[in-house]
Amino acid sequence: MKSFKIALAQFSPHVGNIDANTQKIIEQANLAKKDNADLIIFPELSILGYPAEDLILRPSLTKRTQQAFDQLAQVKDIVMIFGFVNVAEDGQRFNSAAVMKDGQVLGVYNKQTLPNYSVFDEKRYFNKGHQHLVFEYLGHKFGVLICEDVWSLNTVQQLAQLNIDTALVLNSSPYEVGKPQHRIDTMAALVKELNINLVYCNQVGGQDDLVFDGTSFVLNKTGELALQAPSFQEGLHLVEFDAEQQAFSKGTVTPVLDTMAEIYQSLVVGTRDYVQRSGFPGVILGLSGGIDSALTLAIAVDALGADKVQAVMMPYTYTAQISVEDAAEQAKTLGVTFGIAEINPIVNGFLQTLYPFFGDAPVDATEENLQARSRGTLLMALSNKFGNLVLSTGNKSELSVGYCTLYGDMVGGFAVLKDVYKTIVFELAKYRNSIAETPVIPERVITRPPSAELRPDQVDQDSLPPYEVLDAILYSYIEEDQSQDDIIAKGFDEEVVKRVIRLVDINEYKRRQGAIGPRISSRSFSRERRYPIVNGWKPGV
Amino acid sequence: MKSFKIALAQFSPHVGNIDANTQKIIEQANLAKKDNADLIIFPELSILGYPAEDLILRPSLTKRTQQAFDQLAQVKDIVMIFGFVNVAEDGQRFNSAAVMKDGQVLGVYNKQTLPNYSVFDEKRYFNKGHQHLVFEYLGHKFGVLICEDVWSLNTVQQLAQLNIDTALVLNSSPYEVGKPQHRIDTMAALVKELNINLVYCNQVGGQDDLVFDGTSFVLNKTGELALQAPSFQEGLHLVEFDAEQQAFSKGTVTPVLDTMAEIYQSLVVGTRDYVQRSGFPGVILGLSGGIDSALTLAIAVDALGADKVQAVMMPYTYTAQISVEDAAEQAKTLGVTFGIAEINPIVNGFLQTLYPFFGDAPVDATEENLQARSRGTLLMALSNKFGNLVLSTGNKSELSVGYCTLYGDMVGGFAVLKDVYKTIVFELAKYRNSIAETPVIPERVITRPPSAELRPDQVDQDSLPPYEVLDAILYSYIEEDQSQDDIIAKGFDEEVVKRVIRLVDINEYKRRQGAIGPRISSRSFSRERRYPIVNGWKPGV
């Protein structure tokens, strides 16, 4: 057996853009060759990008994939292992990996374990593979696996029994809190049990509501990390197998980020990739003086740069002076374009027009929604005129219970905090301030009681339980699938629990029309929690 | 073998409402007993309703289902065949049917063929069954199948080889144009080939974007219909098996509706069930004097009754006088509440507030969107104040190419024409007038050139190709999955095709935030065409 080098291309594909992805694969392979790599491994479905959803069903995909293979065939003197959609002659479709060298396909592996839960719909698109792929190169025996395969003990055991030295695993494993470390811990235990080395190459970057963290790694059969790539960054990472030591030599091991840093980075990357890949010149958002928009602004600036970000404060009668001051201060600190647009004349215009219809009907949430919708329409007008994408600033707690206005504060193409509970919003704000020389979010924004400022002296806690309580109930109900009875039994106030669950249930229609936003939890309101809108399910057991 | 009677409960479940559905099953069984039925068959998953989506994953479903079984066990002297979610002790979950008599479960069948394409996601929820269920009763040999099973020749053949007389098929087969007749034709050919009788009981009613048409039927092995139930209506239908003739006796055979009547009814039922099951007292919509809102109004009135429907005309500077006249006339003919709200002061309020931002920037679609969003906000305010659901009035052609304003004319909880191309909108309007004594849609609304009236003398054809051309291109691209090159090769103008396809591709973000609406096609923009928003797929081959 000889020593050799493997390159891991922690790669951010542009979903659907086969030409661009293929070019990128070629570039990475050529770079790897300069570093004397013998093999290079790419993420799952690297030619098409993941998840490509129903693009996988387009009839011309086979032809396009063939063209990509023809281009890749020009790369010489390195073994490439990349992912593609493999359509067999009988029409069966597989999530596959090709091993190619000097234009020859040495082998094709069809993924055997197809995830069809959570955010995954692979059985909509793919048939199961039934055969392992093992190849020998430089006297070393490699096996190939794709993502979910490696979480199926059965599948991995069967491969290990073919006496491979190293499993090469192509992944598109989306981020959720704690997932980067969890993958490594699980795989470290696995390699020890099965006595194989493991090379894990993961996709990176945002794709709609999913963020891929990368965090690729290489494990020796002892469970020791020979390589761990930084999270949330593209990069080409090399590792050397030392024939004498019969192990991968220790390279750079970048530890995973602390929890708040990890979440924050995922939001930055998700936002950056959505905005840039949708072709927007920049973003605009409503800055209210509250913590949600303040945090969203900080993330937008970190994602795109201050020159790409516009903030607008839209005060009304009920807006506190300190809100205007705090918004202005933050905009100044971050160096973004800032404007103020009073909405009183607009709201009054609506109220006058509606007077013949409303008559003496008492004031209620309708008038509050008019404020929110006037603001939403202003932001959309500025977006339409100058081209910036509107970022929506609502958080997961609000969205869960419908404490937000459809077509009002919910307007926007991307909802940065959509999957972030309010208690975590506070933590993230503090985290962001902690890494800055001067706080980017004014201290007062973090410490004052949250308010939508839609009526005099309003605070969120007039309508909602304290956020620590609300978020705990929401987490139990949404993330943990607990029943009303379970949650009451944990000691929460019965009426509060019933009200919160009822609000979650009746607000499915709002969430369905909301903007997408980056997933950070294991139960995001996107493709992951598919509830009917018309729904007679009764809370209780 | 004796003569016997089977009842088909063409049933509209309330998804998730296990108590209500169970009570309805018991009522139907008791009614059937009064008619001396020996067996009664219900649709697929009749206890929970279909599709219940992630409610199927709630941990307490097993307990709730057991409670339903306990209640159903009280029904005596009739064999009930109903659908339920069967969770096995090892955690495997099946889409199942139970055969119950006098509180005894005589057999359970687990669906073997799980659809996971189009609108179906059954592999997210269920494991495959592997065994047929055959039972003998009154000297007659029955087999049980569930929906997709009967479209799998392999599965049905295996059952037929067990020498059954009659297959009992529980279905929740959603409507699409022509589907009711297609099912019958396909099954008639099948029963002749396999020499079995077939009892097909289908769910009816709207559930979010799906409409179930019912159209249950009974086929003798000769391929002759012994029963065909009316489409889109709940009902209990009986059929008698004549032991002497060895066949089901000919009962009432209601032919399927003509195409336009069929589509129209599906929209009526979809709208009615969405509104009523969401608990809204009525609906409100913007009546523009154009054909989309005119047709939506007619459907709303047919679905809910005129007293439940409110129409508002919201003219602006560019609204033609005849639009106001036609809207008023239609509202009067149909007897709905009608109001007029001029939006000029509101739009002017927006423009003044935006002036410091816009400066001398040229007028563009921004100002048009302000009109649409002022109207949307007014409708939402009236909805918030009085509780009526806003119906959105846009059609599939508009939604395909983004010729509509997000948070403007797209506001609403239910988009009645979402899956109806503009050319079909015209047909449906003519159809509805043809069945009325006096036309409910003013003739001029049908004959004048369509216009959004967002700028002076605007007509849709300024921005879009003629609707016959547009819809033909859209149909090829969306429904038929043809490529740009394919469509150009059919003889359409190259530039037009490229523009239309580009518009479809870049407007995914708008559709994603649109209201749900009833599916009538085989490729609706709902759970059926799942395209990424960030999408680098290049049109062409």
Plain-language structure description:
The structure is a homodimer of 541-residue chains. With 541 residues, chain A is α/β, with parallel strands linked by helices. The first copy, chain A, is built from 17 helices and 20 strands. Chain A has helices at residues 18-34, 61-72, 122-125, 153-160, 179-194, 259-277, 291-304, 321-334, 344-358, 365-386, 396-401, 422-434, 443-447, 467-479, 484-489, 494-506, 508-512; strands at 4-10, 39-41, 79-87, 93-101, 104-110, 134-137, 140-146, 166-171, 197-202, 204-207, 210-213, 217-219, 225-228, 235-242, 247-248, 283-286, 309-313, 337-340, 389-392, 414-415. The longest helix of chain A is centred in the last third of the chain and has 22 residues, at 365-386. Chain A is elongated. The model of chain A has no long low-confidence stretch (mean pLDDT 97). At the A-B interface, helix 1, helix 6, helix 9 and helix 10 of A face helix 1, helix 6, helix 9 and helix 10 of B.
The tally of domains of chain A stands at 2
How large is the share of residues in beta strands of chain A?
Answer: 15-25%
How is the largest sheet of chain A built, in terms of strand order?
Answer: 5-4-3-2-1-14-15
CATH class of the largest domain in chain A, anyone? Alpha Beta
What is the CATH homology-level superfamily of the largest domain in chain A?
Carbon-nitrogen hydrolase
Largest sheet of chain A: 7 strands, mixed
CATH topology of the largest domain in chain A: Nitrilase/N-carbamoyl-D-aminoacid amidohydrolase
Structure annotation, total helices of chain A:
17
- Please identify the oligomeric state: homodimer
- Strand tally of chain A is 20
Shape field of chain A: elongated
Coarse structural class of chain A = alpha/beta
**Helix share, percent of chain A:** 25-40%
Greatest chain-chain contact: A-B, 87 and 87 residues
